[in-house]
Amino acid sequence: IRPGAGHLNGYKIANPTVLARIGDDELVELLRGYGHTPYLVAGDDPPRMHQEFAAVLDRCLDEIGAIQRRAREDGVDLVGPDRPRWPMIVLRSPKGWTGPDEVDGLQVEGSWRSHQVPFANARDDDGHRKVLEDWLRSYRPEELFDELGAPVAAVRDLHPAGARRMSANPHANGGLMLQPLRMPHFRDYAVDVSEPGTGAVESTRVLGAFLRDVMRQNMTTFRVFAPDENNSNRLGAVLEATDRTWSAERLPTDDHLAPDGRVMEILSEHLCQGWLEGYLLTGRHGFFSCYEAFIHIVDSMFNQHAKWLKTTNGIAWRRPVASLNYLLTSHVWRQDHNGFSHQDPGFIDHVVNKKADVIRVYLPPDANTLLSVADHCLRSRQYVNVIVAGKQPALQYLDMDAAVVHATKGIGIWEWASSDADGEPDVVMACAGDVPTMETLAAVEILRGWFPDLRIRVVNVVDLMRLQDERAHPHGLSDAAFDALFTRDKPVVFAYHGYPWLIHRLTYRRSNHENFHVRGYVEEGTTTTPFDMCVLNGLDRFNLAISAIDRIERLDGRAAHAREALTNKLIEHRLYVRTHGIDLPEIRDWAWSGTAGPRSSGGSPLREPEA
Amino acid sequence: IRPGAGHLNGYKIANPTVLARIGDDELVELLRGYGHTPYLVAGDDPPRMHQEFAAVLDRCLDEIGAIQRRAREDGVDLVGPDRPRWPMIVLRSPKGWTGPDEVDGLQVEGSWRSHQVPFANARDDDGHRKVLEDWLRSYRPEELFDELGAPVAAVRDLHPAGARRMSANPHANGGLMLQPLRMPHFRDYAVDVSEPGTGAVESTRVLGAFLRDVMRQNMTTFRVFAPDENNSNRLGAVLEATDRTWSAERLPTDDHLAPDGRVMEILSEHLCQGWLEGYLLTGRHGFFSCYEAFIHIVDSMFNQHAKWLKTTNGIAWRRPVASLNYLLTSHVWRQDHNGFSHQDPGFIDHVVNKKADVIRVYLPPDANTLLSVADHCLRSRQYVNVIVAGKQPALQYLDMDAAVVHATKGIGIWEWASSDADGEPDVVMACAGDVPTMETLAAVEILRGWFPDLRIRVVNVVDLMRLQDERAHPHGLSDAAFDALFTRDKPVVFAYHGYPWLIHRLTYRRSNHENFHVRGYVEEGTTTTPFDMCVLNGLDRFNLAISAIDRIERLDGRAAHAREALTNKLIEHRLYVRTHGIDLPEIRDWAWSGTAGPRSSGGSPLREPEA
């Protein structure tokens, strides 16, 4: 809470406002409850109001000065019981103040009728035109303008000069103040990945250590914002460098609360977004982590920020500001505790409706790729960057060198997982997102177990906008590059993190689009095991393998037994999960083996699962 | 404001809550500022707390009774200065109350550590298991359960019976209480349309008269909700039947404010949405009108309601509730005053990500179709219905008989605008939404003026979900029906109200999809004329006609002059709008002529526009 000011003119379009009609007593209590000391200035006589307002302003400046002295000179920590009630001025003046009193016999000044256009017909109605003339003459234009119509010196010289002019204030053109972040080397935080598709790393925890050191090197220009508790999203390492902002009462059991903390943690996506926008627009840097489903709470605020970026890109004197960086985690595929209400990967869909030159979407499959992407986003300007990455222990695929190459390309063939190097693939298995990547690799292993001669190409997508046409997005692949990855005529089974139709929307112009078969989240879910969530939505390894079998020409007529065994597996899975409440051991313990996987057992799905 | 209750246990996951740490004085002021009389009950000794809470509850019930008597027996109108401050109880008790005091030497009860799982390892750690046992034994289970483990009679008989059981309370299963609305005949409100494509009717104003009479016949079970002023959205006729809900101070100049008003008008989309959801879930009916761009403010709330509907569809004892009806108006194409910040047609994209069996989207092109659609939506159950319709004067196309047929089909060929009755069309001109429909018809007239022998089919879409595959949405057309409308191989120029890629997403499986060329909103806009907004986004008649020319095989090599003249027109338009601030007369005054339009003049676009 800081000094505040509010203006109550009593009305919105055709209605009174609530605060204007609850009485001074309730209004004052409300504002005191918000932590202010309110001062009301009310009336309708302009000269008297000017004097009163000036006096209150002086009084408030004195109070602010006293508070500042208490902190700066007396060294009082202004928190808890010493937290100051900053002054707040409430100006109550009539709506349409000094405008026409009455028009057509109806009250205008001091009523809702003065909203926007207090009278409609000055062009054709003599009465209205007279009202307009009297109104404008009441400002005594002959004293304000010279004979050429230019403002007189008293008006011309009234405003401040230089950077104190409102339009030239550097705080309102934050790019002028912007200093690049001092960045640690993201490679120093790399996870060791000796064999791809192994390990159990919480990718966002790795990112947390990197963010901690970004914080340490930028203690006046960087903040992290978290409606859902930084710790819960595994970014807790940041608290080694700073605290959570807190100025109310503190207790000994509290954890890392301080008035100068730089972690803005409050269970309000709106506040986090608003604070971050203000912070960026005044020339600083920030990072917003959020539960994926609940970032929709700020859809409308994001809209306005994206529109701001698009518009300011066309205004030469507006300098670029730091990008607005979202990390969406606690995502749709891991709902071990929360379930259906916490599942919505659609913020990406919302974001990609905005102008292509201000939005970027990244789905790093593992920790090293996440580091590389985060480094890139923190250095960027004038974008909204959306990064989606899980916080649960997950397999790692790329060592740091490979991750940098992969994140830089944004999309690529994973040679080590592919078996089509000697020619055309029979099928392209594509994936975007950490869970879909794991399921795709497991499906590839299953397919190679059943059909060792199958030529499978694995394509992983980090930068979602690579899928779009190069004419539609600056990151879009050329048709030649796209066709080289996805072929012009082979089946593509695409496992995607979010709503599957987004992939169709991004690729509908591509020559091979009709062979794209996309699996993703189809709004099925509950509180269940990680693998069951995939099964409920048809994104699991067995369904992906079946989808491939159904589309690979060479398998036509050869794959009935494999298909049957995979279907049996799905039933075995369901029985096991319903009985044990956890996933089958072969699912829980699965890792990429580097060789063709075992041919699936194909045993009866109805045998009793082991206890 | 009604009686309230709150519980402050001090913490969220790992942090204190703000209200627990601002001191009782500020808390009480805040709640008094919200209009309550707060009563604090604080402590940690269960027996004493039970007694204190019971005493405060009695006191509050007495106060509520006194307020009710004042209104019911003494006849006091409880508004303005007589508005009661309803009591509110605030219970302050420790988080994890009566749970373990300490675990591993750290305080748990009364601290953030008691969140969810106060100790993690009861299975493997003897100390944790002992804590668990002591904790559970503290409830003296031997007194609560008999030797078979069933609750003893004292527990069994504690809860109320029948409809007073929480799970059986009919107010919590609103469908049980739901009565159908008594509906006026929507045909009685029909607009006279003697010639299609003429007139200047504010469609939502026509709807307002219908809603007024729905209100009159359902004065205890129907409310309208409006963050953006009902009047501004042209639904003001509703105020002939009821008032705006208002219980604060009133002045003589106020317009239709009353405590029992049934128009819920407040500039908070969140409050409107929350009120409406509660109203529907308790068995009533409602109608929510909103500026199109700002309905995104409740994206996340809509999500949860849609998920609720999907889930309850699978619960046999939950009875269907009335649908949640949105009217989105003040839409993207008419920004004569507001501009870019007020443009976002993406709520439709957000809605169609939800499960197909609970969502419906309608784009009625004119007033009679809007009436028919609204009647259908108000009678429906368990859906979210989204209706998009403009509030500005617009052309009308269908008389009531035709509108009912068209709205019932949801999609159809407009014979009167088509010229392909004798055979295959050369092009299908499709449209969805009021402004795109007008631009499409104007483009058709232009095309027929230049190429009188062209066979053009006009398809209008009201029910957007008709475009989807029948396997993907219950309203989806079969492939045969879709192909009959859109052909299997002819070019389709589709003018759509919202983001164009949504049409691709809905139709990508259709056989003729590769010939679909969609125009829509591409995030370009400012405060400008209605037609210029179309031009900025390429949805205008000239661009649509050019798109058709470029794709019609028969015109290959024949259309250079037409194309040039249309391009000239676009330049003429731009010069005129920049000069005069209004659209060209031929645009402003355009109406469907019923015959092939004049061949566009093709004159120099650089001649000076007339003054």
Number of strands of chain A: 20
Integer-rounded radius of gyration of chain A: 31 Å
Portion of residues in helices of chain A? 25-40%
Continuous helix count of chain A:
18
Structural class of chain A: alpha/beta
What's the shape of chain A? Answer: elongated
Quaternary structure classification: homodimer
Strand content of chain A: 5-15%
Largest sheet of chain A, order of strands side by side? 10-7-11-12-14-13
Instruction: Domain count of chain A, please report it.
Output: 3
Name given to the CATH homologous superfamily of the largest domain in chain A = Thiamin diphosphate (ThDP)-binding fold, Pyr/PP domains
For the termini of chain A, the CA-CA separation is 58 Å
Low-confidence stretches of chain A: 600-611
Biggest interchain interface, per-side counts: A-B, 70 and 70 residues
Main attributes of the structure:
611 residues; alpha/beta; elongated; disordered C terminus; 3 domains; homodimer; 18 helices; Rossmann fold; 33% helix
List strands and helices in order, with pairings.
2 copies of one chain form a homodimer.
Chain A: E1 4-8, H1 23-33, E2 36-42, H2 46-72, E3 86-92, E4 102-103, E5 106-107, H3 126-137, H4 141-144, H5 153-156, E6 198-202, H6 203-217, E7 222-226, E8 244-245, E9 257-258, E10 263-265, H7 269-281, E11 285-291, H8 299-312, E12 324-329, H9 347-352, E13 359-362, H10 367-379, E14 384-388, E15 393-396, H11 400-409, E16 411-413, E17 427-432, H12 434-450, E18 456-461, H13 479-486, E19 492-496, H14 501-507, E20 516-519, H15 530-536, H16 541-551, H17 560-580, H18 585-588
Parallel strand pairs in A: 1-3, 2-3, 7-10, 7-11, 8-9, 11-12, 12-14, 13-14, 17-18, 17-19, 19-20
Antiparallel strand pairs in A: 4-5, 6-15, 16-18
Helix pairs in contact in A: 6-10, 10-11, 12-16, 16-17
